[in-house]
């Protein structure tokens, strides 16, 4: 019979503490005061963005600027993204339980997927509206557009500053932070469009700028959604190659083969690996597993590992134990 090495029972540390798994680029250990201060800033950013959205929509209707309304919709999506991010962050803090043995940290990944998907839809809608306006450019009051775009630029930069600290430790908040930077760029574009209309009466500039905004949002969302989908699809962390991991394990003394190797990212901070290890006869499996675990953590930063032990005599589950011929 195959022997189970015993799972790596560090779930309490995985779920309750912070560590650097493969693919983690953030530093932890911040004080509770820092976290609460950052989340208060998050709440303030939501309120400011909602007020800005209302002002831009009113201004867009009065001025006839679809670019200003486009920027307002984007700001509203940012406010919604911040609300979703905040809620997901609170859910992610819950400890592991019988229903969610890995904990709730993936709530932030799911929230990020929702936010980016909404951004893709919004960008496509804005693009279609801009094309319609290009075919029949309306009259636009450039002065109002410039004034509100300038106000939006200041608020976007202030909101980005409010979310900057938390963005370092959460992909969810980082997405909201990057959205605000994109908004700042959009506001600059709208400001330029308003100036062109005000100075030379180029009414086509407004929908043209809107097209640029929608393209910018779409590019941004599609570039960020990939890593989120990878995590939800249980893909291997991009920094760790399965072949490299296999070679490192097989290099340990007494390991004659590795099969059923599965490597995946549990969330943005933690990765996990499980595999069947074929040991040479007479090898102390407890010591062999200990050495493999240490190597996997030291070389690849993976603390959550589970290994099942097999030998040529015991047989291997679903495969041939014999090492592959050269």
Descriptive account of the structure:
The chain is an alpha+beta fold. It folds into 2 domains: 3-12 and 237-311, Alpha-Beta Plaits (2-Layer Sandwich), CATH 3.30.70; 25-232, Up-down Bundle (Alpha-lytic protease prodomain-like). 63% of the residues lie in helices and 9% in strands. It has helices spanning 11-16, 32-63, 66-92, 106-135, 142-167, 171-200, 205-232, 242-250, 285-300; strands spanning 3-4, 255-265, 271-279, 304-311. The radius of gyration is 26 Å and the shape is elongated. The two termini are 28 Å apart. The model is unreliable at 1-34 (pLDDT under 50).
Secondary-structure topology with pairs:
Blueprint: E1 3-4, H1 11-16, H2 32-63, H3 66-92, H4 106-135, H5 142-167, H6 171-200, H7 205-232, H8 242-250, E2 255-265, E3 271-279, H9 285-300, E4 304-311
Parallel strand pairs: 3-4
Antiparallel strand pairs: 1-4, 2-3
Helix pairs in contact: 2-3, 2-5, 3-4, 3-6, 3-7, 4-6, 4-7, 5-6, 6-7
């Amino acid at each position: 019979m195959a022997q189970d090495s015993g799972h790596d029972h560090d779930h309490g540390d995985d779920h309750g503490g912070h560590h650097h798994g493969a693919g983690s680029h953030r530093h932890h250990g911040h004080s509770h005061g820092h976290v609460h201060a950052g989340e208060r800033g998050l709440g303030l950013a939501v309120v400011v963005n909602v007020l800005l959205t209302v002002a831009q929509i009113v201004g867009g209707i009065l001025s006839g600027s679809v670019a200003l309304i486009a920027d307002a919709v984007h700001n509203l999506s940012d406010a919604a993204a911040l609300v979703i991010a905040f809620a997901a962050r609170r859910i992610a803090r819950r400890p592991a339980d019988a229903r969610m043995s890995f904990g709730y940290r993936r709530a932030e990944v799911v929230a990020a997927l929702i936010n980016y998907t909404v951004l893709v839809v919004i960008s496509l809608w804005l693009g279609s509206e801009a094309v319609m306006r290009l075919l029949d450019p309306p009259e636009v009051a450039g002065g109002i557009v410039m004034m509100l775009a300038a106000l939006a630029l200041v608020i976007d930069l202030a909101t980005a500053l409010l979310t900057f600290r938390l963005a370092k430790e959460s992909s969810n908040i980082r997405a909201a932070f990057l959205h605000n930077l994109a908004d700042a760029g959009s506001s600059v574009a709208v400001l330029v469009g308003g100036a062109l209309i005000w100075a030379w009466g180029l009414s086509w500039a407004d929908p043209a700028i809107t097209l640029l905004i929608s393209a910018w949002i779409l590019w941004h969302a599609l570039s960020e959604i990939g890593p989120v989908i990878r995590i939800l699809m249980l893909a291997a962390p991009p920094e760790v190659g399965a072949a490299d991991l296999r070679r490192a394990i097989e290099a340990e003394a007494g390991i004659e083969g590795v099969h059923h190797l599965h490597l995946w990212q549990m969330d943005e901070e933690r990765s996990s690996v499980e595999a069947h290890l074929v040991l040479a006869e007479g090898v102390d499996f407890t010591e062999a597993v200990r050495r493999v675990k240490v190597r996997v953590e030291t070389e690849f930063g993976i603390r959550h590992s589970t290994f099942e032990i097999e030998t040529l005599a015991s047989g291997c589950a679903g495969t041939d134990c014999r090492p592959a011929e050269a």
